[in-house]
Amino acid sequence: MKGKIALERGPIRYGVAALLLQVVLLGGLLAGCDGQPTPAPSPAPGATVADVAPLDAPRPAGPERLVLAFGDSLYAGYGLPRGQSLPDAIQMRLRRQGINATFVNAGVSGDTSADGRARLAFALDNLSRKPDLVMLGLGGNDALRQIAPAETRANLAAMLDMLAKRHIPVLLTGMKAPPNLGPDYGDAFDRIWPDLAAQYKTGLYPFILDGVIGEPKLIQGDHIHPDMAGVAVIADRLAPVVAGRLKGAEQGGG
Questions:
Q1: Of 72, 142, 222, 227, which is the active-site residue?
Q2: Which of 5, 73, 123, 222 is deepest in the core (most CB within 10 A)?
Q3: Could you tell me which residue ranges the SGNH hydrolase-type esterase domain spans (predicted)?
């Protein structure tokens, strides 16, 4: 996203995206989301070294802004070459904009919100210092496993409570429920992220796969995880949001 965020909220786009997620679940293709190891795909024929090299940009001058990317396989870079994850892509974009950002990727494929809740304190305590921002991206595996939305909400709220007590700013990246789970489940699940963002006064990117899910050229063969082109699309949209949160944290001293 550049400047003001403009998200497509149409029910058809989200419905197709969520339906694809449910189809993959029913087909038993959730190797990445369930944490089962699978090799990263080989570069496509004709790919150059630059296509698969770790994303990087010269480190700008100025104080370092430390970001903890805490989530599941969508942060971890499931199925992608090393150095091509979403946090890598956002770090590169911020550095090219002159922001001295360093991302610590704490994405774990297969993690539910309960898994994240269990390991968040450990992740924070093992950083070199308190992060300037935590990107929190969990919940997709909860929906795929049909975990009650109330449980997902409680786990995310507990993590936000912990981060608030440590005075760490947060950017939530949200998820949408598959329509096959029914309108009651979908309504309860989809409301988690905007409700918590308002309650805890965090930043919010409503749907992390917006603009990518349902686009064959941007998604891996499992129909869930973005390929390198898909990561680039998400990073283009998300990097300005992260930059804004870092600027706000700096101005607020948090």
A1: 222
A2: 73
A3: 69-231
pLDDT tens digits along 24-45: 333 333 333 443 333 333 333 3
Q: Phi-psi region for residue 112, left (φ > 0), alpha (ψ -120 to 50) or beta?
A: beta
The alpha carbon of residue 96 and the mean position of all alpha carbons in its chain are separated, in whole angstroms, by 21
Q: Which fold has domain 12-23+56-252?
A: Rossmann fold (3.40.50)
222 a catalytic residue: yes
- Separation CA 100–CA 95 (nearest Å): 6
On whether the CB atoms of residues 134 and 171 are closer than 8 A, the answer is yes
- pTM value > 0.85: no
* Cβ within 8 Å of residue 19, ≥6 positions away: 178, 179, 180
Residue among 72, 73, 190, 210 flagged as catalytic: 73
Question: Which residue in the list 72, 113, 210, 225 is annotated as catalytic?
Answer: 225
Of the candidates 114, 67, 110, the residue with the CA atom closest to the CA atom of residue 92: 67
What b/e sequence results for 123-142 when a residue is b if at least 16 CB atoms lie within 10 Å of its CB, and e otherwise?
bbeeeeeebbbbbbbbbbbb
pLDDT tens for 113-142 read: 999 999 999 999 999 999 999 999 999 999
